[in-house]
Every structure is written in C-alpha cells, then in structure tokens.
From TrEMBL:
Top-level EC class as recorded in UniProt: ligase
GO terms classed as biological process: DNA recombination; DNA repair
Family classification: Belongs to the ATP-dependent DNA ligase family.
Catalytic activity as recorded in UniProt: ATP + (deoxyribonucleotide)n-3'-hydroxyl + 5'-phospho-(deoxyribonucleotide)m = (deoxyribonucleotide)n+m + AMP + diphosphate
Positions of the ATP-dependent DNA ligase family profile domain: 135-226
EC number per UniProt: 6.5.1.1
Organism field: Rhizobium tibeticum
Protein name per Swiss-Prot or TrEMBL: DNA ligase (ATP)
Superkingdom field: Bacteria
Keywords: Ligase
NCBIfam families listed in its UniProt record: NHEJ_ligase_lig
Keyword Ligase found: yes
Molecular function as annotated in GO: ATP binding; DNA ligase (ATP) activity
Length: 343
C-alpha cells in the first residue's frame, strides 16, 4: 500500500513539524471564472546563502528532480516540462494519479523525483528511470511533490497570495498517496531547518513569501538555500585516459559570462562506467578542433557546447575553478536548464 512520504519528518525529535491542514473556509469569496491557460511560465527560486526569518516566510524541502506542471482538463491530463514540452507519456503514473484527483480543471506546480531508500530525492536515479539524456523510457517509479496550485475549478489563482493557493492545494490533496503527494510545509526557524536538512543529506530548503502572488521568473518571492552547491555547466570537452573506465579521465566544464564561455575546471568524479561510455560516445560525435575556451592539452578532446551537466561542488578556488566538483547527470533540453552565469 502506498503511503505519504515525509523524508524530513522521519525522526520524531526533528524540530520541523508538518503544519496541520485546515478545512477550506466556507466564507471565502467566490472568484470570477477565468479561461484556463495553455501554459504558465514557472516561478523560479533565487539562490541565497542563508534563509530568511520571520512569520512571512514558509519553508519546504528542496527537491532534486524535474520541474513539471500538471494540467488537468476535461479532455485529459497534460504534463508540461519547465521548457514547455509535453512529457505526459514520460510520467504515466503521475498522469494516472492526476486523473484520480476528482477535479474538473486544475494546474499543479511541482517536482518529479525518484526517492532513495532513505527518502531523499535522487536526480541520477530519476535520469536513469527515463533512460538517460535523450532516452525514451517512461518513469514508473517517479513521484510528483506538488507545491503550488495555479488554476483550480475554473479560477486563475496566480494573482492570489501563496497562503490561499496552499490552502486550496492542501484541501485538494488531502489524503493523497502514491504518485502525487503534497510537498509539506515545515514549521521552524529557517536556520535550524536548513541545518537539519543538511544533516539528513538533503539538497537544501526553499523559502516562500506567504503573501506573494505567483510571478513567473526569478523575482525573489521564492528563495533556495542549498546545503551543497549544485548548478548546470556546459561540457566543452574531456581529457582522455587509458586507465579510466570508459576512457574519460575528466570532463572539461564551462560557465557563461555574457555571450562568452568561461572555463571553470575539470571534473573526474561522480560518473559510473556506463555514464563515461555514453559521454565519450556523444562527445566524440560533437568533436571540434577549435575549443570554445582557451585550453591546450595533448590528451584533451574538445566538443561543441551542447551537453549540459548538473554538477555538485563545494565552492570556488582562487582562480575561479570549481572546488570538489562531482557529476550528477545530464540535463535534458526539455528541462530548459540554464547554464551557470558567472559574475
């Protein structure tokens, strides 16, 4: 039997407790009927080094997966990626769960993840469930953690405050288990919550202003605070190695500065032999004699800037290279991942 997953709430001594659900307020005024949008550009979280404090902020777990919008319509369900691509066929379990919610029209905003045995979201496992970058497989083990409700029962909710949207979402998903679950709001001091999330091996937390409408882009209404930095970088080549499994000793990475590519270092950990073999085969097809960054090395193979990798790292060196970088997986074009922009 499926059950609600609460990765951050496994320990009874954990200071962050789930907020009790409230019943819908029958005195809430009726909203005017609004046409259902084909797509809503997602609200994105702004990266901060420390969480905000005060009663105006709500906190959630930061999930490590694919951002999805679930459109529930009278004619069926559509699952749209952050980049606007229809991936309904890639997440059949989530689509089936959406049909079972018993609502005529709705748009749910959330993150599709695959959970580890410890209840942590595992980006690499999600990628593998989809068959890797460019794969055609469907992910049957993924779960959508829904954290916002943008449209409901004929009403556009994007101009209403977050507290109202969350209230309706909690009501809609009350008792929901399985492939669609509520991303629980957790109570507690932001600094203490971040420390607990990091101690449990989570990626970090999200802070959201309770009074904010749903605004597309990175406006500062939502903030992300990470335990370990994780960003997207372009793979611009690799270093050949006869000793390394798969033939790749390290990947050559670059970020953006305006319209230019800037080298940020080489990374040789985090990928398995199967990953290395796929990367070598794909990068060899993208091979170019002219590197997009000013690098020289007899064992370097340069590639056209096409593959975007998600990289976990611990900071920056004095010469602006990534420190203790590790490979997490490739980003899909449909995920609309933005390459890290250097100051």
């Amino acid at each position: 039997m499926s059950k609600r997953v609460k990765p951050l709430l496994q320990d009874d001594a954990f200071i962050a407790k789930s907020k009790p659900r409230r019943k819908r307020d029958p005195a809430q005024p009726n909203l005017p009927f609004d046409p259902m949008p084909d797509r809503v550009e997602p609200c994105l979280a702004l990266l901060k080094t420390a969480p905000p404090s005060g009663p105006d902020w709500a906190y959630e777990i930061k999930w490590d997966g694919y951002r999805l919008a679930i459109h529930i319509e009278p004619k069926g369900v559509r699952i749209i990626t952050r980049g606007g691509h229809d991936w309904t066929h890639r997440f059949p379990a989530i689509a089936a769960a959406a049909k079972e919610l018993g609502v005529g029209t709705a748009i749910l905003d959330g993150e599709a993840v695959v959970l580890s045995a410890e209840g942590r979201s595992d980006f690499g496992a999600l990628q593998r469930s989809l068959g890797g970058r460019g794969g055609k497989r469907s992910s049957t083990e993924s779960i959508l953690f829904a954290f916002d409700l943008l449209y409901f029962d004929g009403h556009d909710l994007t101009k209403t405050e977050l507290s109202v949207r969350r209230h309706l979402l909690e009501d809609l998903l009350e008792g929901a288990v399985g492939a669609i679950q509520l991303s629980e709001e957790v109570q507690g001091d932001g600094t203490g919550l971040l420390a607990n999330a990091c101690s449990l091996g989570m990626e970090g937390i999200i802070a959201k202003h309770r009074d904010s409408p749903y605004r597309s882009g990175r406006r500062g209404d939502w903030l992300k605070i990470k335990c370990v930095q994780s960003e997207s970088f372009m793979i611009v080549g690799y270093e050949q190695s006869a000793a390394a499994r798969g033939g790749i000793g390290s990947l050559l990475l670059a970020g953006r500065r305006g319209h230019d590519w800037v080298y940020v270092g080489a990374m040789g950990t985090g990928f398995k032999e199967k990953d290395a073999a796929y990367l070598k085969k794909t990068l060899d097809m993208l091979k170019t004699r002219t590197p997009v960054v000013p690098l020289k090395g007899k064992n370097y193979v340069f590639a056209q800037p096409t593959l975007i990798a998600e990289i976990e790292f611990r900071g920056w060196t004095d010469d602006s290279n990534l420190r203790h970088a590790s490979y997490k997986g490739l980003r899909e074009v449909q995920d609309n991942a933005a390459v890290y922009e250097l100051d």
